[in-house]
């Protein structure tokens, strides 16, 4: 008799979701599905609004990564205005975007995933959280808090506040950076860079403990997609869009705003999250991954010395495994702070010309940038008066939808061998999702106090087994 | 002009008999909340926030359109008045679509300030979520009907100061809406001189300059007082 195991809600991720694991007559795992159970509707209620309002409106999609939406949205608006924004504005936008990536990665690694990595997948769920980490390894917890806080502080200094800042506007940024703020940030960076480097060293040494997880955590061949710089370097703000397979063979390389020629979206009845796929390979074969793992898989260099050293080691790993998203995240934190240092050291960074003004000059605009979780795409159309008639967003997490489903199926098949459930097994299946760090909206359940009720129910509705947290 | 003596909030004061309660109170440091009132244009008494209690009268009176008189005893603060004022502002919020966080006038909005002054932190009435449109047909300005509270400041300033009378109110009751000329797109208005006085007079983000991002629209209608003074001197 076939059965369904439900994990609802999935904890320590951004947003609300559940996982169902479907067993066949023999009790073997048939497939596992990741359900995103929330609906937002931003694409619809943007219609009829003035395009200048889009960055601040779209930023409200998420309280974790509002800056990513600000940046992608403002870029789409730049295109609607047909302006080339002042070079200093580009640099300032880059800085705030990097600060966003650093703080979000720190949240994902230290707050959400380090409990599994430090305390163990089978450890007591009551203490398997950031508080438990703080008890077992206070320095690790402190480092996590420090890195996240600095990322947030840079966002606050530039954008006025930590969550939902303004500042990034169509045409550039609303005001220039002061020398005082530049110096303040520059003073804080060296310590963060050292912490990031130390954590990379520590976690790299830990990897051998996770050989089983590395082997079955969404470890399969497939494509990777990200923006990439002119010299094949890591790029988070601009650049071309590239797709390559796990061997590094490039299958597509095109101007980012042409993404619709290669990416289409499928709708699944089990989830509000759409599933984008690589058109030439069709659905669902055209599965690809985005995010830190994809970016570092595709980039030949980071363009900053310490991150480049770490990248050299990272290149030796099996990038097919989603488990390596964790290390990729740490390397990107290092890169982000190093790159912010580089950008701030440019004298032009204090230039007062940071905004271009124009009315609507084009009817269609695309804004593509790299958010912490992957490539973020905003696409708007406007009427003659500058009111939005169409908005279409592909959020970074969406790109990973197919890979996450395939990943949890792989892990469920490996770990679930009979009807008996253990918390450790189900935590591993959740942990597969956590490697991708999906951001399902704005809420985080950082401390594992959320009720978790997993039931194994047969077709007749009888509860065969139950694990409660 | 005769001077009368009266009491507002137990405070003895005097004012000219052609003055209204609102201005006499203000001259003596007593603030009464208003939204539709704007110095430099005529009083209208539409928003009803300046309602006050007058001894000997069972009904409440709008301070902006009630003249002072000899021996008048006025009370501007009471539980009843603050209850009415809160309800009025809550109704303004629920009647339109006011999303402060993405509004051009965020942090520079009289409706927002008023709710803060009246300590309104939650809305107890059901939202109506009306389907309203944005008129962006004008080259320089945008009219977002979602944020219009029908205070008619734009109507009055356009008529009385600019002399164009582009704006007016069409419809009745809940159907009331601000229209330009004969209900045609603002950009197609023959009468509009694009002077922008209506934008400066608007207390919310309903009228604003094109190209402004969230929180960037700052208005300063004080110039209307100078214009009114100059006009008075001339005549």
In brief, what are we looking at here?
The complex is a heterodimer of chains A (469) and B (235). With 469 residues, chain A is α+β, with helices and mostly antiparallel strands.
How many DSSP helices of chain B?
A: 6
**Main sheet: strands, sense, barrel of chain B:** 5 strands, mixed
Please count the beta strands of chain B (DSSP E, at least 2 residues each). 10
- Helix segment count of chain A? 14
Q: Which percent bin holds the helix content of chain A?
A: 40-55%
Strand content of chain B: 15-25%
Q: Gap between N and C termini of chain B, in Å?
A: 18 Å
CATH fold description of the largest domain in chain B: Alpha-Beta Plaits
Largest sheet strand order of chain A: 3-2-1-15-16
Could you list the spans of chain A in which at least 5 consecutive residues all have pLDDT below 50?
441-454
Largest interface between protein chains, with number of residues from each side: A-B, 19 and 17 residues
Stated plainly, the CATH topology of the largest domain in chain A is called Cytochrome-c3 Hydrogenase, chain B
Which key phrases capture this entry?
heterodimer, A: 469 residues, alpha+beta, Cytochrome-c3 Hydrogenase, chain B, 4 domains, 5-stranded antiparallel sheet, 4-stranded mixed sheet, 16 strands, 41% helix, globular, B: 235 residues, Ubiquitin-like (UB roll), Alpha-Beta Plaits, 2 domains, 5-stranded mixed sheet, 6 helices, 25% helix
Describe the structure.
The complex is a heterodimer of chains A (469) and B (235). About 3% of the residues of chain A have low confidence. With 469 residues, chain A is α+β, with helices and mostly antiparallel strands. Chain A is globular, with a radius of gyration of 22 Å. In chain B, strands 2-1-5-3-4 form a 5-stranded mixed beta sheet, with helices on one face. A 3-stranded antiparallel beta sheet of chain B has the order 6-7-10. A two-stranded antiparallel ribbon of chain B has the order 8-9. In chain B, strand 8 and strand 9 form a beta hairpin. The radius of gyration of chain B is 19 Å and the shape is globular. The interface between A and B is medium-sized, with 19 and 17 residues.
